[in-house]
Amino acid sequence: MFARLCFTLTVLLFALAAHAGDLLIENITLLSPERSAPVGHQHVLIRGGRIAAISAQPIAVASGTAKLDGSGKYLSPGLMDSHVHISSVPGLVDEDSAEVRALRKAFIRQQPRSYLYHGVTQLLDPSNYLPAINAFNAQPQKPDLFRCGAVPVLNGYPSVFVSAEHRHQHMPNFLHEPANTDPLPTGTHAEQHTPEAVVAEVKASGALCIKLFIEDGFGDASIWPLARIETLRRVREAAHREGLLVLGHANALDMQQHAVEAGVDVIAHGLWNWTSIDGTEGLPTPIAALNQRIREKNIAVQPTLRVLPGLAALFDANTLSDPAYTRVVPPALLNWYRTPAAQWFKQELKSEVGSDDEQRIYRRQMRIADQAMRALRDLYERGHSMLLASDTPSSPTYGNQPGYNTFQEMQLMAVAGIPLQEIFRAATINNARQFGLEKDYGTIEVGKIANLLVLNANPLASVEHWNAIDQIVLHGIATPRAQFSAMATP
Ligand SMILES: [Zn+2]
User: What is the full per-residue pLDDT of the chain (490 aa) written as tens digits?
Assistant: First the structure.
């Protein structure tokens, strides 16, 4: 009786007046990760950009309210990718010419649309380059963007890739280890670069987290300075006092061991660099032992399975003829990718490995990628929960494109043997909880922000169905997917 009364009142309440931005989605199957199974024939009312009501009964609304017929369709929360770099144009040369400026401009316009095209409505960029963040947020329709503050050690990775004169400008919050005798950049003082001072700066910037870099060199190299465990622990203590999470970049066995010792909250990569261990098959004992430590300390892991295949893509003749590229890459940029000038990073990789044998380089990258997938599968089997995090783009490769790379990351998780329900959780509730955003995102529940996907097929039946998006609902506004394609005029 009481329930009946509440229902009647609800109908009355919503019937009072139509608001701009109201949306009623009718007769749809709900897929929400806190539910054990899909629920058919539901009606969802969105008001003021948030979910206002969910009912098995039709909801009466004022005439003029926008309606969407969900018959035969599925409603999912929008996806979150918790590792993307919005300031990088995949594969573009670092050059100040009119051509490059125009390509960059076209990319900035399309990037948020490409993420939305693939249903990614929340992003976390672990770096904090404000000009790029402002340019992203100035776009008319864009995913909700969160960020960490990048905290490299002085002259360490990844600041080594920025010229010495611009390094401090790009990554102002570096850590200074007293033992590092490199001169400090002009105008900076050691006391501004203690763990506590750096954490305070990042907190003041509005970031959710700190990103540390635990990387002494790619492959077997050991050439870049590392912060000591004690310094990293001080960062963690200061960050936790300020309510910030700590992410640690690490993808090699020894570097992830360092990250685990330092007590980071999230390791920002999968474990694919098995150093000198033979990785031909199975899971070597040291890898399994590290996974067990990660499990025991409950450290979250961002798989970033697409890093190596994104490099291998440069050696695959079919990459640029993949029809999916036409949906996410601006036409001018796609044409430029086909020019000799755009092969600069591929040439660099070839000279790095000292080989011209493209087939061999491709197979090598894919073999390392397979190690990442085996390590992830083992972590899952230990009962660890997954996060969706693609690291787009992870290097200057055109093989990691916004939105599409997130979808490809989900495909690889499936190949690695992660069940579809867990991939769904990784992309929604797990990312939301991990980054303290579950009040607003991650499930379809009353009160949450209406970032939702209407799908034509059930993605819990096949991972490919994440590519069957019909409409993207962003803060309550529904847009047909095709409008976000790079082939559509904005
Ligand atoms: Zn990254």
Answer: 344 444 444 444 444 455 667 999 999 999 999 998 999 999 999 999 999 999 999 999 998 899 999 999 999 999 999 999 999 999 999 999 999 999 999 999 999 999 999 999 999 999 878 899 999 999 999 999 999 999 999 999 998 888 888 888 888 999 998 888 888 988 899 999 999 999 999 999 999 999 999 999 887 888 999 999 999 999 999 999 999 999 999 999 999 999 999 999 999 999 999 988 988 888 999 999 999 999 999 999 999 999 999 999 999 999 999 999 999 999 999 999 999 999 999 999 999 889 899 999 999 999 999 999 999 999 999 999 999 999 999 999 999 999 999 999 999 999 999 999 999 999 999 999 999 999 999 999 999 999 999 999 999 999 999 999 999 999 999 999 999 999 997 6
How far is ligand 1, taken at its centre, from the CA of residue 214, in Å?
A: 12
- What CATH architecture is 2-77+443-484? Roll (2.30)
* Geometric angle at alpha carbon 73, from 71 and 79, rounded to 5°: 145
| Distance in Å, CA 306 to ligand 1 centroid | 11
CA of 418 to the centre of ligand 1 (A): 22
Domain with CATH 2.30.40.10 in the chain: 2-77+443-484
Residue limits of CATH 3.20.20.140 in the chain: 80-434
80-434 — its CATH code?
Answer: 3.20.20.140
- Alpha carbon 456 to its chain's center: 24
Q: How far is the CA of 249 from the centre of ligand 1 (A)?
A: 8
302 Cα: distance to centroid of ligand 1 (angstroms): 10
CA–CA distance, 268 with 408 (Å, rounded to integer): 18
Whole-number Å distance between alpha carbons of 325 and 305: 19
